[in-house]
Amino acid sequence: MRYLVRERLLGFGDDYWIEDERGEKVFLVDGKAMRLRDTFELKDRQGRVLIDVHQKMFALRDTMVVERDGEALARIRRKRLSLLRNHYRVSLVDGTELDVSGKILDREFAIEYDGELLAVVSRRWLRVRETYGLDVVREDADPALLIAVAVCVIQLAEKGDEDDD
């Protein structure tokens, strides 16, 4: 299943819809403004919160925490010993680890589990400016989690890029 993310309003504190390949609104990214840390909720069409994401305070490296129903689901951070700046590790609470690598700031990257492709993020499929697609490759994958991972990794990469300036 392919999802379409329009970034023109992208930023924490902003809200934007994610559409499916038929152009139907599927998920709402509800950014929370006026907070001490970056935070957003991923909601379904009916407004139910599916995923809650916030930046972990007082971490040595920038870390985002993903929660579902008030319970921790995953922790996302830049891979410690990576020669590439654009390599992130997603540690799920069950011990599973996902790898995210590619050109994050260009919106050209992959999300993998144990070398198996779960999702691909790309702008190449689209002609609309400031838009990227997220293609969930495995049917048994959790699209809400993969979308949250993509949004978090982009936020962490952009924040790291700002810190380097």
TrEMBL record:
Q: Which Pfam families match?
A: LOR
Gene3D superfamilies to which the protein is assigned, alphabetical: LURP1-related (2.40.160.200)
> Hey, which family's this protein in?
Belongs to the LOR family.
Query: What name goes with this protein?
Result: LURP-one-related/scramblase family protein
